Fold this sequence. Notes:
Helices cover 45% and strands 5% of the residues. The chain is mainly alpha-helical.
Amino acid sequence: MKSGRIFSSVTNKDHRQQIEAAIFQYRFLIPTIGTLFKNLGYLELCAKILRNEIIDTTTRMTVRQAIFNSHQLPADNGHVEVRENTYEQITLPGWERRGTVLVQLWLFCMRHFSHLSNVSPKKEIGQAIPLIEEPNPFHQHALASLAFNLGIKTEKMEKTLQRRPEVQAAKHFLAQVRPTPHRRYTLSEIEESIQRIINALPASNVDRVGLSEAPRTSSESGEALDRRAGRPFENSYVVDSHFLFLPNMVDHEQAPGEDITSFFVRRDFLWAFFGEPPKVPVNQVRPARPLSRSDSNVVM
């Protein structure tokens, strides 16, 4: 503004100051046509995952319509995922709760898209190209579990929940290390081997990152301009996956900084397409705990 490179046709000093003040009041990243199309590609990736994993193939609705149509509102409370498979209970009007359900499913896809599609994060300079993986049955099951815990019910999701991903993984491993051309194994031998593999799997570590620890500003150099649109770069993808949960998306107070972080960019992306989510009163709910399908108050 000071150099006159933007809004060059506005020459009145007072008018330019008013425009500058309005720009500084804008709380989001200012998009260009280029960044918009990159972000649309990222949006489409998450939408495709939800269509492949949650939404029944017979529906011709939009992703939003299909999720809302398959959502069964509990009688009083809803749930918010605050860490992986750890939830807190909230009380919000039904229409706001449906909005939080859609956003939470999208956040899961943002955290794990490389395990639910054949698309990887962008390559970091000087690092190896990220591996392109097949959809992981553990992540597929986790997404279906999240949808169930949030009140979604579809046939596709139910089929995923009926499968045991650890058994699938054990069978795949057994087929690789014990090919059968030279010997046929009995069913009991196969089942015993599968159970031994499952028992040898280590227990998963619980992510203990706190609700208010998501960094949005930085006192040093933050996320560079050429990294702020579309799919995240690999390092940012790994770090931000700890923070991409609904309570961190609302506008909590944050210390000012010199620059913005990659998490700020991811949050801005979400707001741009979904609007700012309702403030989730996480400090007024019961302690966080894992949910299971036996919770009778999850789905009516």
